[in-house]
Amino acid sequence: MKPMDEKMLHELVSAVVKRISFEDVVKDGGFSPAFEKVDDAVEISVKAQRKWQFEYSLDKKKLIIDSLKADLLPQVEEFSSLALKDTGMGNLKDKIMKNRLAIEKTPGPEFIRTSCTTGDEGLVLEEHAPFGVIASITPSTNPTASVINNTICMLSAGNSVVFAPHPGAAESSIDMVQRVHDSLISHGAPEGIITVLSRISMKNVGALMSHPAVRLVSATGGPGVVNAALSSGKPAVGAGPGNPPVVVDETAHVEQAGKDIVAGCSFDNNLPCTSEKALIVVNCVADQLKRKMLEEGAFELKDPAKIEALKEAALNEKRTDPNKKFVGKDAVWILEKIGIKAPGNVRLILVECELDDPIIQVEMLMPVLGMVRVPDFDAALEAAIKTEHGFRHSALIHSTNVDHMSVMAKVMETTMFTKNGPSFSTLGFGGECPTAFTIATTTGQGPTTPLSFCRLRRCNLHGSFRIV
């Protein structure tokens, strides 16, 4: 056997290195995007953003982001499982669907277009430019999907991101940032293009939002964190609260409506802010709708004592907010807590109640759906307005009456309005739209895209450059 000289040894080592996955190298001591100190995270993010903006072509950025999507798809079950284990909320099947949606349908750099106008006075060019460093506050309800969705949107616009995850989803959020960062730099992005705070506290989040190098704050979560973002003195993208009502009128395709409502309301145990939270149905079709919903996996709770026990367990003492221990739990688990053993195929708890009942008026964030009967569409619309609380977040209708659909869309003024489909169709599941996991109702950007994280810049060439 021929002795191994230095050149042969070098070639062998190189071949072995190529066969080791990038993820393994990082785990063995490579760069970590997690930082305890806000200043450290922002400092490297500033440097990375300047490189990303000025040294990377649009084609290169798109190639890196497309490669990120390809890298994440084979891992989706793994990090979906971690999100479920970390938060104890939702269910694995739907989390996998949500993460796949975030990977496959979040728009990239191709979404950004330049406009040009010419006339007798010359030429005007308008382009969408990055803000710079973005502080992204992410929720416990969609920890991994939010990191994926926000990374793709924000980097596509030319920004870098410092993530501040919800403390109830810290492990899965930090793990997701690491996975995304590993992929990005393995395809040529600068180190630190996304970072994450590993020490999570309101003090650190406040320091991040007020840091002079942070140019935009994006917050998804409860009213407290959204209000803090709006008070930061920075441009903000704020996803406020919602309590989406779904109306079913007398002209609806009732069988399809029943199927869609159960599917939408039970999706990931009702964690999405766009999910059906209150059912308002015209009385003449209510029984038919209920029968279909029961066939699709709804469980009707009728016993007044059990209904009271449900409210006692699933709401806080004042009955103004959900009990956090029940948020995102499945219907069978909730029923067991009030002494009812239900079949494993139960997906949703249905409760007939009055309009002022807290099951209707509170955003439950669990598969518990209050149902209110009304005499006609006008009464249904009035009830929907009261239920939605003026958040202007999301609402739904099942109807074949064009006037009813049009009037409700105008009157509700919600950012998301779904007609004749499950709520998740407006997020891109079976709907002709890009996906978003930050629904910026409070600040008006709506379902976010790369354009939501750009600022418009205008360049005017006066009196020149028109060729006609």
TrEMBL record:
<dbReference type="InterPro" id="IPR016161">
    <property type="entry name" value="Ald_DH/histidinol_DH"/>
</dbReference>
<dbReference type="GO" id="GO:0008774">
    <property type="term" value="F:acetaldehyde dehydrogenase (acetylating) activity"/>
</dbReference>
<keyword id="KW-0560">Oxidoreductase</keyword>
<protein>
    <submittedName>
        <fullName>Aldehyde Dehydrogenase</fullName>
    </submittedName>
</protein>
<dbReference type="InterPro" id="IPR016162">
    <property type="entry name" value="Ald_DH_N"/>
</dbReference>
<keyword id="KW-0520">NAD</keyword>
<dbReference type="InterPro" id="IPR016163">
    <property type="entry name" value="Ald_DH_C"/>
</dbReference>
<dbReference type="InterPro" id="IPR015590">
    <property type="entry name" value="Aldehyde_DH_dom"/>
</dbReference>
<dbReference type="InterPro" id="IPR012408">
    <property type="entry name" value="Acetald_propionald_DH-rel"/>
</dbReference>
<dbReference type="Pfam" id="PF00171">
    <property type="entry name" value="Aldedh"/>
</dbReference>
<feature type="domain" description="Aldehyde dehydrogenase">
    <location>
        <begin position="36"/>
        <end position="423"/>
    </location>
</feature>
